[in-house]
Amino acid sequence: MLHFAQFIDQYGYIAVALLVAIESMGVPLPGETALIAASALAKRGGLEIEFVIAVAAAAAIIGDSLGYAVSRRYGRRLLTRPGRTQARRMDVLTRGEAFFDRHGPKAVFFGRWITGLRVWASWLAGITHMPYRQFLMWNALGGITWAITVGIVGYIVGTAAEQIVEKAGLGAAILVGVLVIAAIVYFHVRRSRHRPTAPSDPEPEPEQLGTRTSD
Predict the structure, then answer these.
(1) pTM of the entire predicted model
(2) Nearest CA to 135 among 73, 72, 79?
């Protein structure tokens, strides 16, 4: 993990963009871990968290779109080509088409948070010929939301997020981030309630009007 952190530290935004984009294209690289490591580095002042999130979101959208384009052009041909495993591949294609017919948009959006589906969602969408406009909309929403969520968690938790993700998974890291945010909000609200308020100026009493008697 040390060498990986040094790689992110040395190449910064370029490393995040490449790892996230290539993972999104369908190559199993640690793109999500790169985002968390870069977010932790931003907390230490090495990068800007806004740029880390923006770069990760853009790389995710572009990488997914490239994976979709390649799989839409060649994916079905690879699955249906003659060979010993053709029957198995055809079964995978049939199941994938049925799954994407029912859950395509949800799979593209929520697949961002699931390791295996994050790598293969764009390929499955392309192979099953999911309409590109529909894919692009849910892909962009998922990529942006994922980058913001994971980036903020990595930034808040800091370097501990890398160890949490490595040992317990992203779900644990997100849970820790949510708990940290909840604790900050709780103590802020509590402090506001117990903060002494400045005494307000007393309202002037109405003047007593005397009656003038005429001689």
Answers:
(1) 0.68
(2) 72
